[in-house]
Amino acid sequence: MTAPLYAKVKEHILEHIRSGAWTPGTRVPSENELVEHFSISRMTANRALRELTADGFLSRVPGVGTFVKEPPARSSLLELRNIAEEIAQRGHAYAAHIKKRQTVEATPALAEQFEMKHPARLFYLVMVHTENGVPVQLEERHVNPFTAPQFNDQDFAKITPTAYLIAHQPVDELEHTVEAIMPSPEQCALLDIGEDEPCLALHRRSWSRGHVVTVATLIYPASRYALYSRYKTSPSGTLSQ
Predict the structure, then answer these.
(1) Among candidate residues 104, 115, 169, 87, the one with its CA nearest the CA of residue 140
(2) 73-228, what's its fold?
(3) Residue 45: phi, psi to the nearest 5?
(4) Running DSSP on this structure, what letter comes out for residue 233?
(5) What is the DSSP string of 136-167?
(6) Which end of the chain is less congested by CB atoms within 10 angstroms, N or C?
C-alpha cells in the first residue's frame, strides 16, 4: 500500500531530525515550500506539520515559522539525581525559587509514611526548579527533623534539597512511585502551565540508618520532562543482582 502524501512529508522531516541534520531550533520548510518541493496541496503540507507538532517534534510560532523542538529533558527514575546538575550537563541555566518553607504537624497519613510511632513535627518545603527560566519541576517535600535538623536553615538557591540530604544522610533505601496527574490550579500557577496540561508526579521516599528521612513529590509538566530508567536484566527480564 502506498503511503499517503502527508506521511511521506512527515518522514522526510523526521529523517532530517533523526540524522541530526536539523538540530533543535532549526527552521523547517514552510507550508508553501513543502507544497512547491513535493508538488502537494497546502492542506497536505499543513497536516504533516500539524501532526509533527502534536507529536512533539516541531514547534510552530505564528507569523515566524516552524522549528525543530528540543526534546523533553529526562530524569532517571531509579536514581537520586540532582536536577541542578542534570540541567547544567545540558548546558542550560538552572535556578530555584522557594515558595514555602515552614514547620508543620505531621498528619496521620504523613506519620504513617515516616513510620512514626508518636505525633511529631516535620519540615515542609515547596520550591520550583527552572531550566532557562522555564519551570520544569515542582518540588513538595517533607523532611524528618530528627534525621536532618539543619535542613530548614539551608540556602536552597545554592544547593538543592536532594544534594544536601545525600551529603548529610547516606541513602540506604529508596522508594519511587510514578503517576499521571492533572495538577491543581495552584500547581498550574507555580509551573506556569494551563489547567489542561497533564503532569508526571514522582513520589519519593528515602531511608537512612533505618529512619525515613524525606517524603517528596516531584511534579513535572509532561510536555517538558520525561522520566526514564535503564538497567541490566537476567535473560528472563528480571533485575540483575
Answers:
(1) 104
(2) Chorismate lyase (3.40.1410)
(3) -65, -40
(4) B
(5) EEEEEEEE-TTT-TTGGGS-TTTS-HHHHHHH
(6) N
| Interacting residues of 185 by C-beta distance below 8 A, sequence separation 6+ | 195
Contact 69, 75 (CB under 8 A): no
**Helix, strand or coil for residue 16?**
helix
Burial annotation 20-40 (CB, 10 A radius, 16+ → b, else e): eebeeeeebbebeebbeebeb
Domain positions in the chain are 5-68, 73-228
Residue 209 CA to residue 203 CA, distance in Å, equals 21
121, 175, 108, 164 alpha-carbon torsion, rounded to 10°: 10
pLDDT in tens, 48-104: 999 888 877 888 888 888 998 876 655 554 556 788 888 887 788 999 999 999 999
Q: Is the pLDDT of residue 241 over 60?
A: no
H-type helices in the chain, by residue range? 5-19, 31-38, 42-54, 83-89, 108-113, 161-168, 185-191
Q: What is the Cα–Cα distance from 203 to 77, expressed in whole angstroms?
A: 11
Summarize pLDDT for 105-156 with one digit per residue, the tens: 999 999 999 999 887 999 999 999 999 899 999 999 999 999 999 999 999 9
Instruction: Retrieve residue 238's grid coordinates.
Output: 528480571
Cβ contacts of 54-58, under 8 Å, gap ≥ 24: 56/223, 57/13, 57/14, 57/17, 58/13, 58/28
Mean of all residue pLDDT scores within the chain = 87
Position 118 scores a pLDDT of 83
